[in-house]
Amino acid sequence: MYKVLIIDDEEPLREAIQILGDWQGLGVSEVLEATNGLAGLELLRQHRIDLALVDMKMPELNGVQLLQQLETEFPELLTIVISGYNDFEYTRQAIRSRVVDYLLKPVNRTDLNAALRKAMDVLEARRKQASDFISTNITLNMSLPKLKEKLYLSIIERSFKHQSNEALLPLIGAGSPGNFFAVGVWRVLNLEQVRRDRFHEDRELLHFALTNVINENSDGHFEAFSFPSPRSQREYIAIFTQKGGYEQDAAFLSVHQLRKSVSTLRELFGIEAAAGLGQPSGDMMKLADSYEQAHALLSALDLLELKGGSVAAAGSGSPPAQLKDTTALNVWLPMLRSALENGNISHAKSILGEITRKWSSSGYFSLAEADRVLREMSLLLKDVVAELNAGAGGLRDGEEPGSRSAPEGVLLDDFADFRQFEVRLLERLERCGAEIGRSLAGSRGGTLENIKAYIDNRYFENIRISMFTDKYFLSREYLMKLFKGKYGYGIHEYVQKVRMDKAKELLADPGLKIQDISERLGYKDKNYFSKAFRNYYECSPSEYRSQLPKNGE
């Protein structure tokens, strides 16, 4: 039998816990009460307490201070914390102190008894010492969930070793006749925003809150156990266990739990999530099949129709359509590369806009396809930046797309619909374009001076802009913009200016005929030259020459 201590300064809450707890069914022989942290410490020193329920807001000695004291003085004591969702500092201390569970006010019967049962399981596991592994590793309550997570992952990844781990299977309900198991995979669509705005960049605290939400409605017949997916920082895995009943019951309850959890996440934290659920099975070893089904259903959700709260379940409908045209992806990447290497960010945006319009009108665009596009876009931009020596502004070697901290206002891989997906692509393009622009700015000055010098010295040749675009790997529009920005003339305008300035110089020599001057300037005939001169100076070459002062005048 076990002893429990309730430490809370609010008498109604202590009374509610006394009434709601299934003490006899949990094997609890005595429930003591303390009105504050100091009084609680005194009772702990006087009695052998197995479990303490600790309120975080108390006079004399608050929950944070008490937990810190308990870590030192009573390291074996199991604790359950009572607080609110928004008490971030309290929750951090709860994580550090490795509490059994985190109950939210007002406490309800289901949550209380589920947390108490979790504590009793740990106490029983300690007493029974079912194996050397359990006796040495489950010394505190947080070890049990990590052990379960490891077991589930080994089954899902098909790496489970029967000989060394079979004795641990009862911890996760395997081997019990009549149990059904299913896997759900859910994805946080706005993870960066929520982590920044609601959890102060604390990823561990975010994981704690999310997994608690999906686990909170477990009872004796249906349980959910969730943990972050090792494959993606945006995804979480939930294992649903139905004790007894029928396979259809397990499927129904699992879908219901997923949908309820997704809805709760939106209400509590503003989280937008989508999920997939695999087929239930009575064989624990088929969790891998259920996981693969769940992940495939999640990946196949249509981004064009996606809404926060979407849940796709195995056997619930026809499989999604396939993307009608994927060849465009292979076409636009080289086009984007060319535009970026030429410094033509405007053209790159135009290409991106054209392809996203094509996707949006295709009728189906999956989450998996969106992930692939973001991944390939990041790799493309990384390559372009590296080739043009744009420096550290691009992705570093070996760095995964989306792994860097987002600049202010940028949410990297957050997208809950197709429009947000377009914004993420454009943000990547603009960040890369800015780095390329800064890198190229220092080298373009010399390029423009070379072009100007070429025109000054060879104005009489047939000068084409393509000569310079091919030599310096610049687009026509971008080169014209750069040249005019530096010298005030377009390239054709500058060629004309140099020729006309030279024409005036040559017309001052009376020994040169108009035809000779025309040829020296590179014109095909004197009539064409005369027309060009008149358009430029509003007089013909002969009229200009006649106005020049004669020798001695």
Describe this structure in words.
The chain has 553 residues and is of the alpha/beta class. It has four domains: 140 residues, Rossmann fold, CATH 3.40.50.2300; 178 residues, 2-Layer Sandwich (Alpha-Beta Plaits), CATH 3.30.70.270; 113 residues; 54 residues, Orthogonal Bundle (Arc Repressor Mutant, subunit A). It contains 23 helices and ten strands. The strands form two sheets. It has a five-stranded parallel β-sheet, with helices on both faces. Strands 7-8-6-9-10 form a five-stranded mixed β-sheet, with helices on both faces. Helix 4 runs parallel beside helix 5, helix 15 runs antiparallel to helix 17 and helix 21 crosses helix 22. The longest helix is centred in the C-terminal third of the chain and has 40 residues. The N and C termini lie far apart (127 Å). About 7% of the residues have low confidence. This is DNA-binding response regulator. It is found in: Cytoplasm. InterPro entries: CheY-like_superfamily, Homeodomain-like_sf, HptR, HTH_AraC, HTH_AraC-typ_CS, Sig_transdc_resp-reg_receiver, Tscrpt_reg_AraC-type_HTH. GO terms for molecular function: DNA-binding transcription factor activity; sequence-specific DNA binding. Keywords: Cytoplasm, DNA-binding, Phosphoprotein, Transcription, Transcription regulation, Two-component regulatory system.
